User: Fold these one by one.
Assistant:
Number 1:
Amino acid sequence: MILITGDIHGNKDISKLDNKLNPVYKEMTKKDYIIICGDFGLVWDNGGEDKWWRKWLDSKPFTTLFIDGNHENFDLLYEFPEEEWHGGKVHRISDSILHLMRGQVFDIQGKTFFTMGGAESHDKEYRTVGRSLWLQELPSDVEYSQALANLEKCGYKVDYVIFHCAPTDIQNEIAEVKQNHTYSENRLTEFFSEIRPKLEYKRWFCGHYHRNYVSSIDPDFEILYSRMITLP
Ligand SMILES: [Fe+2]
């Protein structure tokens, strides 16, 4: 079983992962997965709270996979050991918590997933670099070229796309729906806009916008927040 949901922001929005709340969890084991579309936030300072909640996740009947959002401590995240896992690269945070790195294609339970975390913070003026804002929130040249190389390898065909932010046109659509919100386009949203017409996919999921929403531009494009999707 593979489930996908939106941001958890440390323990702030983690209750959706509480197995007491969802009957489907009763059928899950560590061979099943919940994927979080960024803003994991439990690699924040490696303090007691991070560790307590990571242990809590480890005690649950599923394996936690996450892509990075913008609200992550990237300096700490990149210190965790890197390994090959199901065809792509991950950081191993614990026995059953893995960070799916950027520009990777994973084969999980016979389905392929293209992952690319990161987004631009829209509250940068209230944040401090190295304490609450990290410049790695947007991908590096190496990560972009790795993404392109891996897309070439799979012939631009995957089952699922897992990103934190959306392509520019869909991001503009969300800004309109949310009203009084502006999201700036950047190299990452433009990169997603460029690859979307070339990419064959069944469903495309992202987080970041703190809303559950299906795009009217593309009905296969879904933004997740509290909603939990069970893949067929
Ligand atoms: Fe978020």
Note: The domain at 2-230 is CATH 3.30.750.180 (Transcription Regulator spoIIAA).
Number 2:
Amino acid sequence: MNILITGAAGHIGSYLMRELSSKIKKKNNLFFLDNFSSNKYNSLFNLNKKTKFFELDLSTCKLSEIPKCEIVIHLAAKTDAAQSSKYKKEFYTNNLPATKKIISYCKKHNALLLFASSTSVYGPQSNWVDENCSKKDLKPQSPYADIKLKEEKLISKKLKNFIVLRLGTIYGFSEGIRFHTAVNKFCYQSATDQPLSIWKSAYNQRRPYLSLFDLTRALAFIINNKIKTNTIYNILSNNYPVKDIVKCIKKINKKTKIKKVDHEIMNQLSYNVSNKKFCSLGFNFKSKLYKDIKFTLEKLKNIN
Ligand SMILES: NC(=O)c1ccc[n+]([C@@H]2O[C@H](COP(=O)([O-])OP(=O)(O)OC[C@H]3O[C@@H](n4cnc5c(N)ncnc54)[C@H](O)[C@@H]3O)[C@@H](O)[C@H]2O)c1
């Protein structure tokens, strides 16, 4: 089976380039694609010499330029949710056409699409939410999350063979690591002796998080097993309040301080997302937040 991974130079993709092949059956071939819009050429350092990488922009390339595959893991997108209100047009004109191209590609090759959506489509919810949450109760709070929802709708309307994966906020080290998201940003701030900038009122509020390790195992689980398609799965290691993340960081760097700050994005309000539907297929989320934070801080230990 040929498997295409788009957005391969990114935080998640650069981890998959190194870790996915060892978790799936040997006869699978992996193909990676990115346009380097995030300029992460560093994601290409020290790759296995068999890695097949294509520099292509999904919003402008021809379908015929993309290698033929039977499964697509579609990660390519502009991703800094906090900036998506300011750069709304750039987000809409990149992410939607890229996903439309991938939909056409999957139709042409009859490929299975694994789409990286986000738990941010739920927005603030007073109770636990799962995949049965009705469309009218989804409350995306940023253009980034709104686009994810539009893409989910397009995919379910146009494709017969797809899985929407609503991913929790990623943590963990990769060659293409981004520091926009909570855990990694706090690790960087702690490593550079800056106070952790915690959004006011977010300290006790729980949100869904996902380790790169668990995500890679979850994707391998989907590829290795015939699981139910044409559906949505929440993929998250656990729901944590920010104070748990701070506690882990403080355990490693005792000098860490925090500073409460304002922020325009409201999707940081508390919500707990259930991963039971995916676990009911026989999958266990295994990652430990402390261990991943320790590993990231270890990588940053000489920065000061
Ligand atoms: N990181 C998270 O916390 C998180 C959480 C939920 C969902 N997701 C989703 O997972 C996917 C990957 O996230 P990430 O953290 O690795 O993001 P990232 O920003 O690190 O990587 C995205 C990659 O996509 C590439 N790209 C953007 N537009 C492209 C285009 N038109 N053609 C080809 N390549 C293009 C970029 O150059 C970049 O390397 C995204 O769709 C994101 O929305 C991420």
Note: Residues 6-7, 9-13, 34-38, 40, 57-59, 75-79, 94, 98, 116, 118, 167, 169-170, 176, 178, 181 surround nicotinamide-adenine-dinucleotide (CB under 6 Å).
